[in-house]
Amino acid sequence: MDDALLGEFINESREHLANIEADLLAIEEGGANIDEELVNKVFRAAHSIKGGSGFFGLGRVKELAHKAETVLHMLRSRKMAPNAEITNVLLAAFDRLREMINRPGESEAADISDLSVSLTGLASSYLSQEEKPALVGTVTLQPEGGGPAVTLPQVDFDRARQGGQTIYAVDYDLVHDIERQGRTVLDVFSDLWQTGEILDCVVDFDSVGTLEDAIGNQLPLRLVFATVIGPGESEVLFPNMGGKVKVLFDPAKPGKAAAAAAAVPVDPTDRSDRSDPSDRLVAIPVAPAVRAAAPVAAPKPAAQQAAPPPAQAQPSAPSPVAGPAAVEDTIRIGVGLLERLMNLAGELVLSRNQLRAAIAQKNSQALATADGRINQVTSEMQDAIMQTRLQPVGNVFGKFPRVVRDMAAALGKDIALDVRGKEVALDKSLIEGLSDPLTHMVRNSADHGVEMPEDRVKAGKKRQGTIRIEARHEAGQVVVEVADDGKGIDPERIARSAVSKGLIAAEKVQGMSAQEKVALIFLPGLSTAEKVTDISGRGVGMDVVKTNLDRLGGKVEIHSEPGKGSTFRIKLPLTLAIIPSLIVSVEGRRFAIPQINVEELLRVQPGNVKTRIEVVGDAEVLLLRDRLIPLVRFADVLGLAPTYVDPATGRRETDRRSRLADRRSPRRTLDEMAAVGAGEGAEAATATAVAEDASRERRSADRRRNPAGALEVAVVTTGTQTYGLVVGSFHDNEEIVVKPLGRHLKALGEYAGATILGDGTVALIVDVAGLAAKADLAAVSGTARAREQAQAAEAERLTDSHALLLFHNAPDELCAVPLDTVLRVERIGPDEIEAVGGRRTMQYRGGSLPLVTLADVARVKAIGEARDLAVIVSSVRGREVGLLGAMPVDVVETRAVIDQTTHRQRGVAGSAVIRERTVLIADLFEMVDAAFPEWGAERDAERRAVQASAKVASAEGKGAAVLLAEDSDFFRAQVKRFLEEGGYTVLAAPDGQAAWDLLEANLDRVRAVVTDVEMPRMTGLQLAQRIRGDERTAALPIIALTSLAGDEDVSRGKAAGIDDYQVKLDRDRLLDRLGEYWAAGARAAPSG
Amino acid sequence: MPGYTVENKDGTCRVSLAGDLTAALVPALQQELKAAVAGGATGVIFDLGGTVMLDSSGIGLLMAATNSLRAKGGRVRVVNVSADIFRLLQSMRLTARLDVSVRAGEDS
Question: ipTM of this predicted complex?
Answer without folding.
Answer: 0.86
